Amino acid sequence: MRANIANNTIEMTKAEAKAAGKITSEKFKELKAYKEAYPGFEVVIVAASRRKSAYSGLTYEYMEAYIEKHDENKTIMIEFNKLRAIVSDEDKKNLGGMSETLKAASYGEIREWFLNTFVEIKEFHEKHNKEVEEILKSKKKKAA
Q: pTM of the entire structure?
């Protein structure tokens, strides 16, 4: 929630508005404080800002190719396939059709496992994102 002085509005997300609908909630108290501080301002609902993934392009296909290149004894690929609920042909025969009922981990869980397994990928992305942020900050300072 924030006050937009330029537009004379109090901006809040749909989730904040829903929470502020309960009189005993913290969001209600926050909205009340904003309305008292800015009595002529109109309350508007704005879209929640979406965080861009720092790991865009980190697909299952990329992870699989990276694992194939860096997994000498194939144990990491076995874990990866278990997380994705990918069963070998031999296991499918042994399970007798039950392999379709296996539950896969979510993409987020698999991504976290991958980044913890291959720390160099995580470090590379963090370093790159920091460098991009610094470049953008320096451009803003020069423009000002």
A: 0.53
